[in-house]
Amino acid sequence: MTHQMQLQPEPFDLIKSGAKTIELRLYDEKRRKIRIGDEIVFTNTENGKTLAVKVLNLSVFDSFKELYKMLPLLQCGYTEQDIASASPDDMDMYYPKEKQKEYGVVGITIALKSAE
Fold first, then answer.
1. For residue 21, what are the contacts with CB-CB under 8 A and spacing of at least 6?
2. How far apart are alpha carbons 115 and 41 in whole angstroms?
3. pLDDT digits (tens, 9 = 90+) for 56-81
4. Do 54 and 34 meet the contact criterion of CB atoms below 8 Å apart?
5. Are the C-beta atoms of residues 89 and 25 closer than 8 Å to each other?
6. Which domains does the chain show, CATH number per domain?
7. Contact residues for 85 (Cβ-Cβ < 8 A; gap 6+)
8. Cα separation of 70 and 12, whole Å?
């Protein structure tokens, strides 16, 4: 199955370069349909370019606080320069705490298949 998702330019480029191999999302109805082996096509919100990835693993947690303790943040889009200030609160700008509490969160481990 193929899933469609939007991505800001910075995480898009990090996935394309291979630096980001775990995509963090709310574990809502849309993400609950994702299975290991599925494909996700990410569309860059700025220029419309796409990249396709294969889902290797799904790590489900009750909160980003738990996820940040368990997953390697350098694979989640942080760099050596900003890893010291990494915080689960960084995800609040994308997903309100109420939604995080309602749905839980997921770290989607991915491998790049192709990029446009």
1. 15, 75, 109, 110, 111
2. 9
3. 999 999 999 999 999 999 999 999 99
4. no
5. no
6. 2-115 (2.30.130.30)
7. none
8. 23
Report CA-CA distances (Å) from 65 to 19, 77, 86, 99: 22, 16, 11, 14
Tokens 């796409």 sit at which residue?
50
107: Cα separation from own chain's centroid: 6
Buried b (16+ CB within 10 A) or exposed e, 21-49: bbbbbbbeeebeebeeeebbebbbeeeee
Give the predicted TM-score (pTM) of the model. 0.95
Element (H, E) at 100: helix 97-103
Please measure the distance between the N-terminal and C-terminal CA atoms of the chain and give it in whole angstroms.
20
CA distance 21 to 15: 6
Please state, in angstroms and rounded to a whole number, the distance separating the CA atoms of residues 28 and 103.
5
Q: Which of 31, 17, 6 is CA-nearest to residue 112?
A: 17
